[in-house]
Design a protein that fits this description.
Elements: H1 3-59, H2 64-78, H3 86-102, H4 109-183, H5 198-237, E1 241-246, E2 251-254, H6 256-262, H7 266-269, H8 274-280, H9 282-289, E3 294-300, E4 303-316, E5 319-329, H10 331-365, H11 375-405, E6 414-416, H12 418-435, E7 439-444, E8 451-453, H13 455-472, E9 478-486, E10 489-495, H14 527-537, E11 541-547, E12 551-559
Parallel strand pairs: 7-9
Antiparallel strand pairs: 1-2, 1-5, 3-4, 4-5, 6-8, 9-10, 10-12, 11-12
Helix pairs in contact: 1-2, 1-4, 3-4, 4-5, 8-9, 10-11, 11-14, 12-13, 13-14
The chain binds adenosine-5'-diphosphate (ADP).
């Protein structure tokens, strides 16, 4: 039965209870009041008339008014005959009264009239008693019926009161429990309600919803498991070490390579805080301490390998929910690079001596003492000298670069006067400057302290700055060298008024083999990279400022000596 029908029935029943009680009550009250009215109206009035007639009879011999009183009451009595025998008695009184009026001195009528009135009185009194009994019975009946109906209705209402809240609350409680279970992801929860009302329908809808959620969860779970094992397989097949952390830096997974590198098994460290693992694991400590990108030399599996550390943030919308450290195995590249560096070092070294002797021979040939050369021969000799000089510069840069790459920069740090470095550099480029009619201006602070530097390497850097400045300056331009003290440092700056460098290339200018696109084709793009390495190896720093069309300013800072 529908809940709506149940509610309608319940309310209709209550309405019926009120109606039945009301109608029954009114019915019995009417019955009682009718019975009582009858008693009052008929019998009680006869008693009053008889009484009045008896009083009037006492005075009838003396007063005329008594006669009319008697007559009036007798008439009323004659009109109020209700009981059997009352008519005869009233007629007897009328007859005796008529006789009394005809013969007032005959006193024998008095007792007969009194007796007649007494009979009427008795008849009515008896009737009153009888009707009283009837009223009493009606009241008893009313009491009985009302009690029976009240008891029946009370029992029904009581059952209704006891059961009805449960009809509503039981399914609601069950549904609430079900919803709580579903909210807690227990999709196997079902609700069983026998009723076929709206709650039953709701329970069915709930069960089919739970069923669908269950299916969805199971298919999702299977999908997730599949994806997980797929990703695990991929991760484990990789040559790179991979370590996953959650947002609180707890270890989530390690692949096989990472296990070997760290020397731990995944099961041993899974779920542990990386900082706790780092206490007993040097590599983990290094991985956690160092910056985002770094090359690491790791000794694992009985060999030395090189890895590039990359830290990737795992994001969920805007939030970082974990990190993955990827240790990319760069050993093969390292080996290749090493072979390349060795090759370059060997070739440059082997080329340096013959090129020097070519240059020397060319210079000797150009000497008039050796013999006179014609114009054309002089040009050829000059070109040989220029080319061999350029080749020497390249071989020297390549040699320096191989030193830098193998980490073999040999420094001779000592207190050196800044002016000595400047002088050495200027002398080296003077000829080039003169060729291009570029003037070199030297500005130096007074009383400059000595710097702690390797004179040769620092002069090499300055020469590189000056060579570039001259190369990129127009003819007749001026190149400035400034040496200034900055707290505990001395700054060497080479400023030119050349074409300048576009801002987007500035961050790359110190990279190896980088040349500004479209600039001169000669040069290796190694000069500034080597300069950076040389200066940083001495504890200094290097920088560039440049504006296209205005010129460039290359500078480095070195610590003062002492
Ligand atoms: P290179 O041997 O090619 O000169 P460098 O490392 O010394 O190599 O310089 C790299 C590049 O930087 C050059 O190719 C040039 O494009 C740019 N560069 C260096 N110095 C200057 C300068 N003073 N003015 C403009 N561009 C410069």
């Amino acid at each position: 039965m529908k809940l709506k029908t149940k509610l309608s029935l319940g309310l209709s029943f209550l309405f019926t209870v009120i109606l039945v009680f009301g109608v029954l009550g009114i019915f019995y009250i009417n019955l009682l009041s009718n019975d009582a009215a009858k008693v009052l109206k008929n019998n009680h009035e006869s008693l009053v008339y008889c009484n009045n007639m008896l009083k009037a009879l006492e005075n009838i011999a003396h007063y005329e008014t008594a006669k009319s009183d008697f007559n009036e009451n007798l008439k009323k009595q004659e009109a109020n005959i209700t009981e059997p025998g009352e008519l005869e008695a009233t007629k007897g009184v009328r007859q005796n009264y008529t006789e009394l009026l005809a013969a007032p001195d005959d006193s024998s009528n008095y007792p007969q009239i009194r007796m007649g009135l007494q009979i009427i009185n008795d008849l009515n009194q008896n009737a009153i008693l009888k009707k009283n009994n009837i009223v009493q019975k009606t009241a008893d009946d009313a009491k009985l019926w009302l009690t029976i109906i009240f008891t029946v209705l009370f029992l029904i209402t009581l059952t209704f009161i006891v059961n009805f809240p449960a009809i509503l609350s039981n399914p609601i409680t069950k549904l609430t429990e079900g919803i709580v279970e579903i909210a807690g992801k227990n999709y196997s929860k079902r609700i069983y309600l026998k009723q076929k009302d709206e709650f039953g329908e709701l329970a069915n809808a709930f069960n089919s919803m739970a069923e669908k959620l269950d299916q969805y969860e199971r298919s999702n779970l299977a999908q997730l498991r599949f994806e997980k094992s797929r990703i695990e397989t991929i991760i484990n097949q990789m040559n790179d070490g991979i370590i996953g952390f959650d947002a609180k830096k707890r270890i989530l997974f390690l692949n096989v390579v990472a296990e070997k590198l760290l020397g731990v098994k995944e099961a041993e460290v899974m779920g542990k805080y990386s900082a706790d693992v780092a206490v007993h694991n040097d590599l983990m400590r290094t991985l956690l301490q160092d910056g985002v990108k770094k090359e690491l030399k790791i000794y694992a599996d009985n060999k030395e390998s090189y890895f590039n550390k990359d830290v990737l943030n795992v994001m969920n919308s805007e939030e970082v929910i974990g990190q993955v450290i990827v240790l990319k195995n760069i050993t093969p590249f390292h080996e290749l690079n090493e072979a390349k560096t060795n090759f370059i070092a060997t070739v440059s070294h082997e080329l340096k001596t013959p090129i020097s002797s070519i240059k020397m021979s060319a210079q000797l040939l150009s000497d008039n003492r050796v013999g006179n050369l014609n114009e054309e021969q002089n040009e050829l000799i000059k070109s040989i000298t220029d080319d061999s000089e350029r080749l020497l510069k390249i071989t020297s840069e390549l040699l320096n670069m191989s030193q830098v790459e193998t980490g073999n920069i040999q420094l001779k740090l000592q207190p050196v006067a800044a002016s000595a470095i400047v002088q050495q550099a200027v002398e080296a480029v003077l000829f080039k400057a003169q060729q291009k009619q570029v003037t070199i201006k030297i500005n130096a602070d007074d009383n400059l302290p000595m710097v702690n530097a390797d004179q040769e390497k620092t002069a090499w850097v300055l020469i590189n700055f000056l060579t570039n400045a001259i190369k990129f300056s127009p003819e007749h331009a001026a190149v400035e060298i400034n040496t200034t003290r900055k707290n505990n440092l001395v700054e060497f700056t080479v400023r030119d008024t050349g074409k300048g460098i576009e801002e987007k290339y500035l961050p790359k200018i110190f990279d190896r083999y980088f040349k500004v696109p479209g600039s001169s084709k000669t040069g290796t793009g190694l000069g500034l990279a080597i300069s950076k390495e040389f200066i940083e190896a001495q504890g200094g720093s290097i920088r560039v400022q440049s504006e296209i069309g205005t010129g460039s300013s290359f500078s480095f800072l070195l610590n003062i000596a002492g």
